[in-house]
Structure formats: C-alpha cells, structure tokens
Amino acid sequence: MNKAAGKLADSDGAKGRLPAHEVIYRQLRDLVLYGDLAPGQAVTIQGLTERLAAGMTPVREAIRRLIAEGALEFQGNRRVCVPLLNAENISEIILARQWLDPHLSLRATQRATPDDLDELTAMDTTLDQSILRGDLRGYLELNYKFHKRLYELAEAPILADMADGLWLRFGPSLRVVCGRLGTQNLPDKHKDLLQAMRARDAEEAARAIREDVIQGMEQVRQSFGGQDPLN
Amino acid sequence: MNKAAGKLADSDGAKGRLPAHEVIYRQLRDLVLYGDLAPGQAVTIQGLTERLAAGMTPVREAIRRLIAEGALEFQGNRRVCVPLLNAENISEIILARQWLDPHLSLRATQRATPDDLDELTAMDTTLDQSILRGDLRGYLELNYKFHKRLYELAEAPILADMADGLWLRFGPSLRVVCGRLGTQNLPDKHKDLLQAMRARDAEEAARAIREDVIQGMEQVRQSFGGQDPLN
DNA sequence: CAGGAAATAATTTGATCATATTCTAGGCAA
DNA sequence: TTGCCTAGAATATGATCAAATTATTTCCTG
Where do the HTH gntR-type domain residues begin and end (chains A, B) (predicted)? Predict the structure, then answer.
C-alpha cells in the first residue's frame, strides 16, 4: 500500500523535484557561462562527480548536453574541454548576434508590458551596482540574465535558443576579457535600450542593442583575436 | 613532440571504432531528420533500446543530445517526444534560414573549388533521380546532404551548426508535407544556385538559395500552419 | 440497477548507481 | 627513439529504485 508520500513535502532537503541530471546540467552550465572554467581547460567526468558531489550518470548526460550546445568540446579521443575560440569563431558569433539580438529586441519591445520594463530596469540597476562594486562574477551573471530576459520577452523560442546558445560559446572568453579590463571599463547601451522600449520605439531599441552587442563583442575580438593570431 | 601513430588505418576491423553512444546518436538523428518518427510521437528509452538493439546508457545520451539540439522535446514529466511545430515556430525557422542560408552560400561560393562544385552538381543529379523515382526517403536525405555540404564549404562552423540545427527541427514536419504533396511537386532552385556558384557570383548564389529556402519552407508553413489550427 | 467518478492497484518507463570492460596516455626499459 | 606495460579515466551493462500512466475496482448517485 503506497501512502500519499507527500507531493511536495521536501523535508529532507531544499531541492525541488528536479531530476539530478537537470540540476547538474544547470550547475555545469553556470560554470561555463560565468567563466569558472577557463578556455582550453579539460573537463573530466570524475572531476565533476567530486566537484558537484554527484553520480557518474547524471554528469555524463550533462556533459553531452553542453557539448551539443557548443558549450564544451569533444576532442575525438574521449577527452572533453572548454572551447578555445579563435578570431574567426568570434567573428561568426558577432555576425550572428548582430542579426539575432536586434531582431529579438524589436519583438520584445512590441510585447513587453510596463511590469516587464520595470523588471528590466531593476535588473540594470543591480547590474550597475555590481560594476561599481567591482563584482565581476555578479556583473557577468546579471548582464547575461538581462539579455536572457529580453530574449524571453520576444516570444520566439527557437530564435531565443539560438541566441542563448551563443552566450555559452563566448562565456569563458568573456570572463577572461573582463578579468583583464576590469568591470569599470565595460560600458553598455542598456539605458538607451530601455528608453527606446519605454517609448515603444522598436527600431531604436534594435539599434541600441546592436550597438551594445558590437561594443561588447569587439572588445572580446580585440582582446582575443588580436593577441592570438596563430594557432 | 611526436604524434601518436595510426590515424585511421583500421582496414582490418570492419566496424569503425566509434563509441556506441555516437553510433546510436547518428541513427536516432537520421530517424528524426528523415521523418521516420512522426511529429508528436513519443520517444521512449526502452523502445529505442529494442529498435536499435542498444544498451540503455548510450540511448539516454543520444536522446539528451537531440533534446539539446531541439530535435526532440522534453515534456516536463520525464516524457520525450518529437516536437509538433505550430505556425509561429515555422515562421521563426523561415526567418532564421532566410538569413543563415544565403550568408553561408555566399561564403561557400567564395571558397568552393571546382571539385567541390562538381561534387554538388553530382549530388543534385542524384537528387533529381530520386524525385523521378518517387523515392521520398532518398529525396529527403539527398536534399539535406546537399545543403549540409554547402554549409561545410562556407567554413563557418558555428553558423553551420546553427543552420544544421534548424533542419533537425523541421525534419519531421517536412516529411509529412512531402508525403502529402508527393516528390514531383517539390521544385528547388539548386540549378540556379550551382550556375551562380560556377560563375563565382556570390550575391546571385545567395539570392538563389534564399528563394530555395522560401519556396520549400512556405509549403511547410501552408501545409501545417493552415491546416492544423487547433490542437 | 446502471452509470460514472474517484481511489487504488498494476504495469510500464525513467533515473540512478555500482561494477565490469575498454581505451588512452604516459612512464620505463631496451 | 621505440615498444611494452601499467595506471587511470571513459564507456557500457544490468540491477534497483522511483515515478507516472493505465487499468481496475469500488462506492456513490440518479
């Protein structure tokens, strides 16, 4: 006889009912996205089972997912590492984001409610505080989530997935660049974007985010593409 | 530093040395890509272990990869199915391909060698034969491989990955549409494209592939977005 | 007495782990 | 340098546990 067993009576731990492989995936994803893993660094299954205190099977599945998304790289012979971008890769990402991000911002501007705009504004304010505090990790996380929220508001899940996937690819490199430059020297165009969105000027919003993308990604290109010409 | 010997000299072993999860992944990928799995159909691990005569772990990993690529859909409660596209999804895919494919064709035109062009021409010829024969499966496979080869020639791996991923998303729906219309009624612009590529007219090649994309995808949109409004 | 809804049992399927096997890398000796 | 050998990591299997859907039963209502 099975008892009710409690739907959500998670007295044992603070974890929700998410399967382990999903939890591990998100943790590993954040590790990549916020640059806790350096470009080129090897990623081993057993290393992650220890670091994340997980079983082998969930870790394997999480790694496969990240490889499929381009966040990790399978090196032929059983080895997995964090991708090391070259100048051409970065140019491709810039090109794709220059098309995707403005398009998504345009749609988001047409669909965002006043509450949505307030939420974005609040996120941007918190982001500025992280910059002033010199909190690099906080900056990276909030900057990503700001753009991610924008993608969601566009109500175009496939295009949003594509844009999201690009962040996973340049996340590790972005961390390196920001670490060199310091957070103070990383301006953004979020204020222009929010002003245009409040005015419901979708074209202007697209233009603002396009500049934001170019400004941010060009720093990555120069810091990386210029310094590492060979290889 | 010496390289390890023995690149690919496995002439004796009939089977390649590919790991099982890689083999299963490719088989399952083809199943999705060429419409052997219908949109909306449930995909079970145990069903695939029987169908593909494989163990449970490789199948699980293959499914995770396909989910990450958007080829399969995770339905919250442990279930996995083949995505059922709606009109908005199809519009997104059309939009993305309208940008990606011309861009890749343009780059491919600038980089293709005469041998590459001969190869593409041969593929297109075989494709025409499949159409005449009424060989739907052969048509789907060759049509995909023609475009896939084009992506490779562009030498832009990230953009190519993105375009490739879109094929996985509309593959099952494409099969349904082609099954309804018959292969005879599926014209393409490959001849125009090849002519432009041979003339090294990159702009014209981009224009041709753009028309090819629109022509093909609009049939999917009309056949699906119009006919299946509810559900 | 019949029909249906809710609860419960049963079966199917997914998630996880422990373990055995296979492969790669690097050290060591000739 | 070359070849073998060992260590360690990745791959793959099967068993076990947990969850969800389906089927069944029961009880209430008309």
Answer: 18-85
Domain limit, last residue, from A81, A104, A132: A81
Do A93 and A27 belong together in one domain? Answer: no
- CATH number, domain of A45, equals 1.10.10.10
Token pair for A52: 């994340």
Is residue A11 in some structural domain? no
Q: Which two tokens stand for residue B118?
A: 């001969």
Q: Is B148 on the interface with A (CB under 8 A)?
A: no
Q: Note down the domain range covering A44.
A: 20-81
What is the nearest CA distance from A129 to chain B, expressed in angstroms? Answer: 34
**Helix segments in chain A, DSSP class H:** 20-33, 45-51, 56-68, 87-111, 114-133, 136-153, 157-181, 190-198, 202-220
Give me the CA A4–C1' D27 separation in Å, rounded: 20
Q: Is A55 on the interface with B (CB under 8 A)?
A: no
Q: How many structural domains is chain B composed of?
A: 2
Between CA A1 and C1' D19 the distance (Å) reads: 15
**CB nearest to A92's CB, from B89, B158, B166:** B158
Same domain, B64 and B109: no
Ordered per-residue pLDDT tens for chain B, 231 residues: 333 333 333 333 333 478 999 999 999 999 999 999 999 999 999 999 999 989 999 999 999 999 999 999 998 888 999 999 999 999 999 999 999 999 999 999 999 999 999 999 999 999 999 999 989 999 999 999 999 999 999 999 999 999 999 999 999 999 999 988 887 778 889 999 999 999 999 999 999 999 999 999 998 888 876 544 333
Q: Inform me whether the C-beta atom of residue A93 falls under 8 Å from chain B C-beta atoms.
A: yes
Does A188 lie in the same domain as A100? yes
Quick one: residue A113, left, alpha or beta (phi over 0 = left, psi -120 to 50 = alpha)?
beta
B129 and B172 both lie in a single domain: yes
Q: Is residue A3 part of a domain?
A: no
Is the same domain home to A60 and A147? no
Whether residues A217 and A105 share a domain: the answer is yes
**A47 and A114 both lie in a single domain:** no
Backbone angles phi, psi at A143, to 5 degrees: -60, -45
Long-range contacts, stretch B217-223, CB < 8 angstroms, 24+ apart? B217/B90, B217/B93, B217/B94, B217/B97, B217/B170, B218/B94, B219/B177, B219/B181, B219/B186, B220/B90, B220/B170, B220/B173, B220/B174, B220/B177, B221/B87, B221/B90, B221/B91, B221/B94, B223/B176, B223/B177, B223/B180, B223/B181
